[in-house]
């Protein structure tokens, strides 16, 4: 069940039009709880106590979505959409009563914030298009709610209020890791562990286990002006409270993927608290801050051109040397 307190978290941002306030949305969601009797999905809090997710014919605990006032982060609704799916027929045949209806309880978390006049941003705890676009899922439930006031409303899966400025940010990050990892007074980039690139023919390659400007296939991607991203990155954030570290996969839409093993804070917290803290901080502070730093780097456009030219020169030097070595071996006398 993809929820924000799992050991592994994946987040997708979605936007939607609505003139409802966050309080109105929260109240409306609270009036639509999950109904076990009819297996109708509905809304509750993100509290995991006795959530019963993954159990057969289970009922989630009675609770309501939470409206959290602004503070370190913007005002937000934290809610979980509970729903049931039928068990595979091969499994359900082991039931003692042949006519019983066996359904598994699932949950998906959403975080809703204002995204400008007449729009809301919805963070969904999955990057699976199948789950996010379910006809009986969380986003469609929100869409039906908003359409009660305006039946032209549709969820916008292609626009993100948290989107990065450009896919060029991934080349900028790679360059910063190797030349100037301290990008502001708190954030220091540590290592680029992976990156995807797509060439002009829409062929995609994934580089793993370390990426830098010494790696020929990455240099080729840069020299060929391939579209870069998503990126796998580690960085640290040092504040008066101490040092936090993050390892994540960052997508162009501002969504991300993290695992408990790649997150640390200077204070003790449970696994659930750790993942929730990291998810909120990444979504509403750290990723937007990295994006702003990129946008404020006025020297980057000129430097970018030099980075691409340097990649071409490095490849030319590398293969010229390899060609010379090959010729020398081929021309060497046979023993």
Short précis:
With 335 residues, the protein is α+β, with helices and mostly antiparallel strands. The chain is 31% helix and 27% strand.
Essential attributes:
about 325 residues; 11-stranded antiparallel β-sheet; 8 helices; elongated
How are the SSEs ordered, and which strands pair?
Blueprint: E1 8-17, H1 22-30, E2 42-44, E3 66-68, E4 76-86, H2 89-92, E5 103-114, E6 119-124, H3 129-132, H4 138-147, H5 168-179, E7 187-198, E8 204-207, H6 216-223, E9 227-239, E10 242-250, E11 256-264, H7 271-296, H8 300-331
Helix pairs in contact: 6-8
Descriptive overview:
This protein is an alpha+beta fold. The protein folds into 2 domains: 140 residues, no CATH class; 134 residues, no CATH class. Strands 1, 2, 3, 4, 5, 6, 7, 8, 9, 10 and 11 form an 11-stranded antiparallel β-sheet that branches. The chain contains 8 helices and 11 strands. The mean pLDDT is 93. 31% of the residues lie in helices and 27% in strands.
Annotation, overall tally of beta strands? 11
Computed CA radius of gyration, to the nearest angstrom: 24 Å
User: Quick check: average pLDDT?
Assistant: 93
Order of helices and strands: EHEEEHEEHHHEEHEEEHH
Beta-strand percentage range: 25-35%
Poorly predicted runs of 5 or more residues: none
Alpha-beta content class: alpha+beta
- How far is the N terminus from the C terminus? 66 Å
Which descriptor suits the 3D outline?
elongated
Number of domains: 2
* SS element count, helices: 8
Helix content: 25-40%
- Sheet of most strands: 11 strands, antiparallel
């Amino acid at each position: 069940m993809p929820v924000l307190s799992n050991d592994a978290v994946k987040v997708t941002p979605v936007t939607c039009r609505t003139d409802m306030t966050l309080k109105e949305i929260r109240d409306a969601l609270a009036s639509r709880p999950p109904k076990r009797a009819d297996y109708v999905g509905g809304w509750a809090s993100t509290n995991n106590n006795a959530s019963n997710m993954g159990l057969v014919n289970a009922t989630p605990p009675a609770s309501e979505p939470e409206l959290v006032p602004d503070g370190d982060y913007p005002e937000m609704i934290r809610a979980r959409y509970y729903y049931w799916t039928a068990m595979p027929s091969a499994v359900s045949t082991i039931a003692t009563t042949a006519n019983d209806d066996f359904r598994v309880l699932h949950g998906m978390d959403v975080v809703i914030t204002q995204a400008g006049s007449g729009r809301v941003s919805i963070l969904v705890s999955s990057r699976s298009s199948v789950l996010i676009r379910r006809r009986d899922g969380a986003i469609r439930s929100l869409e039906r709610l908003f359409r009660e006031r305006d039946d032209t409303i549709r969820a916008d899966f292609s626009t993100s209020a948290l989107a990065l400025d450009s896919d060029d940010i991934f080349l900028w990050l790679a360059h910063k890791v190797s030349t100037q990892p301290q990008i502001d007074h708190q954030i220091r980039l540590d290592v680029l562990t992976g990156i995807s690139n797509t060439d002009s023919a829409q062929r995609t390659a994934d580089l793993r286990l370390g990426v830098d400007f010494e790696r020929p296939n990455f240099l080729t991607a840069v020299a060929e002006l391939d579209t870069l991203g998503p990126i796998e990155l580690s960085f640290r954030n040092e504040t008066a409270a101490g040092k936090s570290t993050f390892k994540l996969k960052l997508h162009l839409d501002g969504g991300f993927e993290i695992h408990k093993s790649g997150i640390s804070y200077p204070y003790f917290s449970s696994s659930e608290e750790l993942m929730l803290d990291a998810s909120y901080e990444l979504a509403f502070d750290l990723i937007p801050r990295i994006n702003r730093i990129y946008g404020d780097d006025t020297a980057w456009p000129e430097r970018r051109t030099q980075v691409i030219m340097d990649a071409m020169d490095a490849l030319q030097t590398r293969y010229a040397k390899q060609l010379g070595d090959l010729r020398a071996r081929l021309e060497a006398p046979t023993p």
